[in-house]
Amino acid sequence: KAGVTQTPRYLIKTRGQQVTLSCSPISGHRSVSWYQQTPGQGLQFLFEYFSETQRNKGNFPGRFSGRQFSNSRSEMNVSTLELGDSALYLCASSTDREWGIQYFGAGTRLSVL
Amino acid sequence: GENVEQHPSTLSVQEGDSAVIKCTYSDSASNYFPWYKQELGKRPQLIIDIRSNVGEKKDQRIAVTLNKTAKHFSLHITETQPEDSAVYFCAASRSGGSNYKLTFGKGTLLTVNP
After folding, report:
1. Of A27, A96, A111, B6, which residue has the fewest beta carbons closer than 10 angstroms?
2. Which helix H or strand E contains B34, and what residues bound it?
3. Which of B46, B100, B109 to mutate to test the interface with A (most CBs of A within 10 A)?
């Protein structure tokens, strides 16, 4: 089985721009969660989707949004980028039956200049 | 919401020694506690987990203990090896229900010196 795939792996943007990141879960996994990883804050939960519905959302501003498609692929969007948005963005997929066992992608490294 | 505190932030041990990482959580409704290992430049991977109906779980050199009353859980690694060097994250969540959110500690950088 292919693992969780995130694209692109690296992105460089400037302040004020917007960005879209993509995540393809493991086949058969319908839950996709997104995390922001920074050196000082560790892994912070952004949101979780299941069957195209957002079931939970972390404490991030409205500039961070996401969606999930019928094939379980998910995208997250960050608008009006700020320098502080520079981070590794990780997505993870899981089955609903064993939701807590999350399989992570390699991440997208976003640099905001 | 849930808050997970993890200590220490860095830990250095000699090869063959034991390592212990401790986490506390705030939400008494949390009942699922996984541990993830992230090697440098790699993705986090689940190494062991424990549910609230169990006090201890072992998998070869790794064990996790849970004290629900005190709301803390710990990772124990025995006979450490250089390949155990990584960042370890604890996490907590409510399994099932409507939570669907893993709250992570800030991580512990474990260095095993040969």
Report:
1. A27
2. strand B32-38
3. B100
Q: CB within 8 A of B113, min separation 6: which ones?
A: B12, B13, B14, B15, B82
Please list every residue in chain A whose beta carbon sits closer than 8 Å to the beta carbon of residue B104.
Answer: 35, 42-45
pLDDT digits (tens, 9 = 90+) for A54-71: 999 999 999 999 999 999
Residue among B89, B93, B98 minimizing CB distance to A55: B98
Unique residue bearing structure tokens 């986090």: B44
B107: number of CA atoms within 13 Å, CB side?
20
At B42, the pLDDT band (50, 70, 90 cuts) reads: very high
- What are phi and psi for residue A104, nearest 5 degrees? -90, 150
Instruction: Provide the pLDDT confidence category of residue B47 given band limits of 50, 70 and 90.
Output: very high
State the pairing for strand pair B19-25/A31-38. unpaired
Find out whether the peptide bond into B34 is cis, omega within 30 degrees of 0. no
Lay out the sheet containing A74-78: strands in order across. Answer: A5-7, A19-24, A74-78, A64-68
Contact B7/B22 with Cβ under 8 angstroms?
A: yes
Closest-CA distance, A16 to chain B, in angstroms, reads 28
Closest alpha carbon to B35 in B3, B77, B67: B77
And the tokens for B110? 């474990």
User: Which residue shows structure tokens 């212990």?
Assistant: B20
Q: Which of A6, A30, A45 to mutate to test the interface with B (most CBs of B within 10 A)?
A: A45
| Rounded-to-integer distance, Cα B72 and Cα B68, Å | 7
